[in-house]
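quick one before i forget lol
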Amino acid sequence: MTSMGKTRRMMSVGLTGAALAMALAVPAQAGETPAAAPGWKLTQTGTDARFRGLAAVSRNTAWAAGSKGTVLRTTDGGRSWRNVSPPGAAELQFRDVEAFDARRAVVLAIGEGEASRVLRTEDGGASWTESFRNTDPRAFYDCMTFFDDRHGLAMSDPVDGKYRILSTRDGGRSWRVLPDEGMPAALPGEAGFAASGQCLVSAGPKDVWLATGGGATARVLHSADRGMTWTAAASTIPAGDPARGVFALAFRDRTHGIAVGGDYRADQPSPRAAAVTGDGGRSWRQAATPPPAYRSGVAWLPYSGTAALAVGPTGTDLTTDGGRTWRTVDTGSYDTVDCTRDGACWAAGEQGRIARLERR
């Protein structure tokens, strides 16, 4: 493709993302055809598994990982889903999936001791290899992230008073526990939330952030060297209870980020459920108009710069000003959301729900 061709294609994709954000941001006017508005379109998955792990690769390809050891993959934009679950994994709870393309993906199973595992496929899920099994009964892995197709991290709740970080340099084929000398001490009762695969996120080649809750303060930890050393900053999202804190993070670059969370109990309010940072997580500001309820997943819309979506059991919210104000745009139940560079957004949740954002 010529340089001019690449430029035109990027402009086209960028306008698509910007137009999508604009269409979501503007409520339908009197006399406007409702079908013109974009929204979530549910796809037929053929399962009732709950999907908290989601990896959107492109407009056509996405992976979802969930309860009962279920892994699904689509390569036709969600028109059909193939069950590519690892054999013998029915007792595992997959809470995160990271995919590099239609053939290569890594999934994380959560739980105490040996329930926490990492599996990898290189053939679209036709076969799987277990590359890590936790043997420490004190560890409980929650989330993972990849900087590129070779370097990645996974995080466990605190062991001996510090979060444990697992590292790979070969695309998830092998893992090692990193030394914890550069990790700040965890607060009493503090832990991560395995709610959406977004309690550990990265941006660029070395920066990674870790979300916490359960302690007196909901914090965000940041590392600029792939998990070797960390700093901690307090967020504005309420904590002080095992059910409260930061549940998900999204960074569109190494400085601009959004945190969402709240109290996951349906009968409890979630005030101040979103926060923003413009300095890489060194400080956080409360959203002026936060989502109205607990949110477990968040993703930046591609190419918009200031638009993002947050999802939870009671709905989807949109921001068009970088996370300062939010507006509910859908009331369906979703646990996690992910958007791709070519302009596609996907969401997944309970009862086999996987949806794609498109014009209805």
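fyi The chain is about 5% helix and 40% strand.
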